[in-house]
Design goal:
The structure is a homotrimer of 641-residue chains.
Chain A (H helix, E strand, L loop, with lengths): L1 E5 L10 H10 L4 E4 L4 H4 L9 H12 L3 E5 L7 H6 L26 H18 L5 E5 L15 H15 L2 H8 L26 H29 L4 E6 L8 H7 L2 E6 L1 H7 L4 H6 L8 H12 L5 E6 L17 H11 L4 E4 L25 H16 L9 E4 L2 H9 L8 H14 L4 E4 L10 E4 L7 H9 L3 E4 L27 E8 L5 E3 L4 E3 L1 E7 L2 E5 L5 E6 L2 E4 L5 H14 L11 E5 L3 E6 L5 E2 L5 E4 L3 E2 L4 E5 L2
Parallel strand pairs in A: 1-2, 1-8, 2-3, 3-4, 4-5, 5-6, 6-7, 7-8, 9-10, 9-11, 11-12, 12-19
Antiparallel strand pairs in A: 13-16, 14-15, 17-18, 18-19, 20-21, 21-25, 22-24, 23-25
Helix pairs in contact in A: 1-3, 5-8, 6-8, 8-15, 13-14, 16-18
The structure holds zinc ion (3 copies).
Protein name (chains A, B, C): Beta-galactosidase
Organism (chains A, B, C): Pontixanthobacter rizhaonensis
GO molecular function, one term (chains A, B, C): metal ion binding
């Protein structure tokens, strides 16, 4: 695995560049990402390009032996461009145009901006497409960040109507598919359809779902235009994009299919603070992040990549600036995060950023260097990680154990119609992922269309609309299967299937969900050490009632190799189900100490301690790095025996 | 009492209609409501009507012996109509036009839409006004639902100015009435008056109150236009409207005076979740709803009806789709709710809906049938209720015990100027209602103008502006009277009366409120088993200090037959006051077991257990239905002895 | 110290005026503020003035011996004026124009309204500038109240561009100063710059800070225009403005420099409820307000006044109307508040309002009289206070002990970039102020440019950008110094200084802050009786680690006479640091009983009990008023020995 850094030569005096490059190389970094926010320096006036500084920056980095990942600067169009087309901004859900002054200030549906984005991409690619230092391209930056996938602009409305006409052909088909007879919502032409925001009460969920799918497709096609230009003008270089954490507004599986590599931006402490983890977890892991945040995304984005190539292009090296509260990582965490990425098969971990900028929005975001160019605590950990990696060599091929099925479409369906506040397919997946990982199992998070061969166990946390291909694959699968609530409960147009839930999954698990409930937090059905909470599915089935609450509520049904978890898959309930399923699948679930996680390849077993106390881990294999007395933020690597 | 269902033939293949009709009749249902959302099917293009399907639907239902309640479809104008008049939408408090895509997307003040609503009402009434199956009309659907009474549109502003000119005659009178000299808010003409939203700090409360009254009047006149057409074209049929729960934005007493029957839509579980009940109540009654939600509205809407005719046109039969959390009712609750309506004198309970729709917004809203046409749990309970009703015959005439005075105007005044967050006349009324009902008393909720004869006791929970008629009636009344805080504290123009509060009520209770406070939750004055909380009135009076807190705060004053509750009327305080007043009035307050409620007619005593445990009830009378060991969700009926 | 009242003759029949005036004088009041909301009565039609009523009102008050403070009515322009220039309203952060119907409905940058404000000020000053009864002017009313300093209007945008051009000269300087190279935010001209609201993610903090400074300057220049007219037309009268509590949106130090007297509006109970005090404090002090609310503002606004002249122009006399909850003050509090102002050196305490108005927005706001003209509880306390003041004579000259440095600019910087939710320079200052006052110390809150001579101790709670003048003054200061976290951490353009924090303060305290963190509430580093919380600064320094947490976190560093508090300065931590610093400075910190506060002059020691229990205070000096057994809301005054 390579290490790298994100660097902004335009932020620093030119006479600092060579020394920066040297220090990067000395620290064991071999790749450097640049350029993704530099449009106003590349093209300071319309049509007037200033390549000189960037030529020199690239050559300086190249001279130090660094490989360059070059970004297209389309996330930050300059003010002069925005002034040329004031309707290029996205419009928010309240109908307000968003403005200039930060970044990502464009609507994916604006044709004028699409042309400009293609123009600047072509210009940069023409200049540097064959430069020997340039080994990879990044398209744009963090699609979807700051709620930028979905726009309620006129441009979006017009494009949505066109997209609908393409999808449904005639308006009657759309009316039928959406059930528009309900509440007299029938349209007489595609040009009558509005965006689903600002309605009196909720819009038709089918309307929302179509709009979510359209909005995702706009991101994918915007990205594809850049990829096509880059492949034309910069042959034999990889193209990647940097996804964010917990962003689900566009379909990363779709994006991954058109990229060479999927990368992501890993900020475990910021994500812990900003996403709905429990207060207990937020307190316990304040300086580490929840132990599964990084791993979940590693396993998710690896599953998004066409050929499994992935990496971390932005790794948190210290406190960030953007969360409600911004603590520093526990000493050791920067190294731990780096090696956890290695254990999951990353090809690169690149730290964001090389040096903390003293100005503008991110001035309180740490770098490997402090603003005064002294080493920040993260730098030593990066150097240590480089040494560890050199010591370990290749991470080894992953052991396949559990496939966890996740789809972005499922997340949009459950966000559109959660039935119970705060519940969705993503968080069902995260919750099951945690249970599996606490049992020491390797998990691959894969799309419904992925191949299930080689796995001992499959979990489908929540997949309301089930593709036929998955049904076939699951029927052919003879390992253990866990199906979570709401799976199979919807058609592809977000209606209830003819024979009720679990719809197509009846082929696998013969049952009918006669009623679905959602419960407020605190209400539960108590079982033997577990509780059924939040989402309940009531089944008519010949299956065995495997876990039954004291009041008779069945929390888990079992039919042959398939278990149906009939409540929100959390805590002791899903842990018990996962443990039973894994054992039957021939896996060996363990009980890891609190905060400890492992990841297994054919070469190594990696162990990581996200907790605040030293923990003793007992794993088969010879100690290769660290020891089985795993200190807080500690890493141990054992040779697989 | 009759039973019925809400049915949408336009949602289902025509070949299912006859079987649906037969099954309804078999289940003991005799009435079916249809048509209220079908505008786009009745008039698919402007001026082009398609009556065929509706003719056949009505005839099919008729053939099965069902009586039809037909709705005017004005809550769901089609898209082609909205496109003709894009300014017909209501505008929200933030100044944003609301859009097409759900329902109730019109502003009550838009003259163009008023004309269209009259046109379609006339068309439907002409077609079916004399059809033998049609026994009742419903105007529109759920006025005020989804915050649709109040609109900040230009149409509303223009109509408001006209309304003000009618009310005040000259602008000087308005300036004086509102006290516009304050902060130089004086107007020089009615055309200078704006709507009270988006001001810098709060607008004049008198301005708000006038706007609230105007907004209510717009609903009433909109409704009246439909009633006039229906009475003209469909003689000898009843006209009703379906009110929602806890909607107070328009004056239901006014509405009731122009209807033949007042009906309402009873969703106890959704209301429990969405309204400010305590967390403890939300946990205890998650599957039952608070024990007083349905009864409160029964007693309230009965008091709204000109001749006391009322019913439940939409009864929750299982989980709904629209609350934050949507649990299923406890087994037995659908029957319990039905019989509780009977006990309060309903003429109809109609379940919403016959069959769960598999598409669009309400696809997760249960029906009596599942989407696959199998019986949902609610159907069996409806059948049981039909059998119970047949068994019991007439419910009997209600026993008059306590009159509780509520006015919508009072609610608007207290919402406009709550002085203490979250407090209002409605919740004062609900709180006293609960105390009375926990004491086993029959309560009628009536407007200030209603006749008090026959009652042993009157409660005025919170009536800031007191009509002269009520003062006279109370002076003539020799039973027990309870007056709650803030009563009499305002003039009709929301100012402080010349002699201070309780204003006109001084005729009844000689006192002066020298100071009114509001306290944050948690602050209280502790008494002997009770506390004075939230709203405090300090009185100068010769009355007896009946309940005095340890620190000297007087929570209840007594003068002759009148008690003044000088704090927020909740919990043990109002229970104690109610008990004393009732005992003096010759009523016999009891202490019902937790969760148990009763309702008494001259024929029967009904007992209902909303709790989670079996309770023993000891009531005079012979067991006629059920037993005095009342299980959770159980009903017992005793013959009045 | 004089006493007074705020009076609105235009609200009352003319035949009540003389009696009101007589009763004021009888109560011991000598000053009366009038006129500040009377524009629509002074100029009912454009250009048509009605002076008669105001002439008579002034003469009536004068005849009773009262001195008049006359307000310019510019906070309440009439509707006819707003209709002439509909773009005069401020625009809120969401882009919505605010409207007519309350007060303060103007944008400070609107040139048309500025001309109108000057015109009416000139008219009033011409009429009454030389009237013998008029002794003081008030400009406008409560600048900034109801969030009215900052406007996002087109007028504001245009004025901001002009202001920026004045400040930066050329656009390149602005780009460099703000670091606009970051995210390609570079501008090519001042006319490209937008306001910082409605951006996609946060705007550049330097952009925000400039806009905050500009917005403050607009208030100052708006006010200056009135002052110039008043000084021209009303020679030898004082000009003051009435500031609100906890309003920091404009720079009160700047305002104070152009006024003769700074006054403020003291509503301790409303402020307690509406500002982020702990729930425990809100419960403990529900009827008193937090013990430091009034004193903090007394000491702050005294420091704003050019010559130290200040007063309370609006003193809460009973419950207010505008907080979420509005309790009554504990008996005695109105007197206590009055004498606390005296102890801090006020020249006037004026009660708001003379008589409670029965109409419009503030009808639930108590006065000294009830709406029925009877005495409200506050009147007796005012009379008692007048007697106490007469008894005591002059308050005496204040003892200088601790100087606390606060700047509005610091507050804007920390609001712009809090790094940790809810933390800011203001609340750091309030927290340290409380610790000092609990130790019985006199505190002056002064701007960074103020003279430090005479103080034994200086506290700099949080001053990110440090003026050179303060650095010099602190270097020359040989008493104890406390520096709070984030001090010196920013340049004047909100970037990180070249050598990192504490920037210029390194001259005083040799250290480098290598890392700054913010922690969520509940996370802490436990020390010996104290905790390090919320904001943490990590230092490289040769200084002594004076307070070290169990885990090694250093919470307080000490170097010579300077202490650096490296965590949020709250609770036991800052109390311990303050105590150590004070003792070293030769002050004698005490431990006052809970809720008790003192203030010392060269003549008296005043003691106030804000608690709910009687407390024994042991102070040197002879009892002059009250006794050392200090009852709840009690005041005692001792002659300084
Ligand atoms: Zn990033
Ligand atoms: Zn309904
Ligand atoms: Zn004020």
């Amino acid at each position: 695995m390579k290490l790298g850094a994100c660097y902004y030569p335009e932020h620093w005096p030119e006479d600092m560049w060579a020394d920066d490059a040297r220090r990067m190389a000395d620290a064991g970094l071999s790749r450097v990402r640049i350029g993704e926010f530099a449009w106003s320096r590349i093209e300071p006036e319309p049509g007037v390009f200033d390549w000189g500084w960037l030529d020199r920056a690239i050559n300086t980095l190249h001279a130090a032996g660094l490989e360059i990942i070059l970004g297209t600067p389309t996330a930050t169009p300059p003010k002069w461009l925005a002034d040329q087309m004031p309707d290029m901004f996205a419009v928010d859900v309240h109908g307000r145009s968003r403005g200039f002054g930060s970044r990502r200030h464009y609507c994916f549906s604006h044709l004028g901006y699409r042309a400009e984005a293609a123009r600047i991409t072509r210009a940069v690619a023409q200049r540097y497409g064959n430069h020997p230092a340039v080994v990879m391209w990044q398209t744009d930056n963090e699609y979807g960040c700051h709620d930028t996938t979905i726009s309620y602009s006129d441009a979006a409305r017009d494009a949505f109507r066109f997209w609908l006409a393409q999808r449904y052909g005639d308006i009657g088909s759309l009316n039928t598919a959406w059930g528009n007879v309900f509440w007299s919502m029938e349209y007489r032409g595609f040009d009558q359809i509005e965006l689903p925001n600002l309605t009196v009460t909720e819009a038709n969920p089918a309307h929302w779902l179509a709009f979510r799918r359209f909005s995702s497709d706009q991101v994918i096609s915007f990205d594809k235009a850049q990829i096509d230009i880059l492949r034309e003008l910069s042959p034999n270089r990889d193209v990647m994009h940097n996804a964010m954490g917990f962003v689900t507004d566009y379909d990363h599986h779709d994006l991954g299919q058109q990229l060479d590599v999927v990368m992501w931006d890993s900020y475990p402490l910021g994500f812990l603070e900003m996403f709905p983890f429990s207060d207990a977890d937020k307190a316990a892991y304040v300086r580490q992040g929840h132990p599964d945040i990084a791993a979940f995304h590693h396993d998710l984005y690896r599953g998004c990549a066409a050929d499994g190539r992935w990496g971390v292009i932005e790794q948190q090296p210290g406190p960030v600036n953007w969360a409600r509260h911004n603590p520093a990582p526990l000493p050791g965490m920067v190294r731990l995060w780096t090696l956890e990425a290695m254990a999951h098969g990353a090809e690169l971990v690149s730290y964001f950023r090389w040096r903390q900028a003293p100005f503008a929005q991110e001035q309180m975001h740490a770098g490997l260097l402090r603003p005064d160019s002294q080493a920040a605590p993260g730098l030593d950990e990066a150097i240590q990680a480089a040494s560890d990696i050199a010591d370990l060599g290749e991470a080894g091929r992953p052991i396949k154990e559990v496939a966890l099925i996740f789809s972005y479409d499922a997340e949009w369906i459950t966000q559109t119609q959660p039935q119970g506040e705060g519940l969705s397919a993503l968080w069902a997946a995260f919750s099951i992922y945690t249970a599996l990982r606490e049992a020491g199992l390797n998990v691959d998070i894969i799309p419904p269309r992925a191949d299930l061969s080689g796995y001992a166990m499959v979990a489908v946390p929540c997949l309301p609309a089930v593709p036929d291909q998955l049904v076939s694959a699951l029927k052919a699968f003879d390992g253990s299967v866990i199906i979570g609530p709401r799976s199979g409960s919807k058609t592809d147009e977000l209606s209830i299937p003819a024979g009720l839930a679990p719809g197509k999954l009846k082929a696998l698990f013969p049952a009918t969900v006669t009623r679905s409930e959602s419960l407020r937090p605190g209400t539960h059905h108590a079982g033997d050490g577990w509780s059924a909470t939040r989402w309940l599915d009531h089944l008519e089935t010949e299956a065995e009632a495997e876990l039954v609450a004291e009041d008779g509520m069945v929390a888990c049904w079992k039919s042959a190799n398939v278990r149906y978890c009939a409540a929100w898959p959390e805590g002791a309930l899903i842990a018990e189900i996962a443990r039973r399923a894994a054992t039957e699948a021939g896996l060996e679930p363990v009980t890891l100490p609190t905060g400890v996680r492992v990841r297994k390849t054919d070469t190594y077993i990696f162990a990581f301690n996200y907790g605040n106390e030293t923990q003793q881990v007992t794993l088969r294999g010879i100690e290769r790095l660290g020891s089985s007395a795993l200190s807080a933020a500690g890493v141990a690597v054992f040779e697989a025996s």
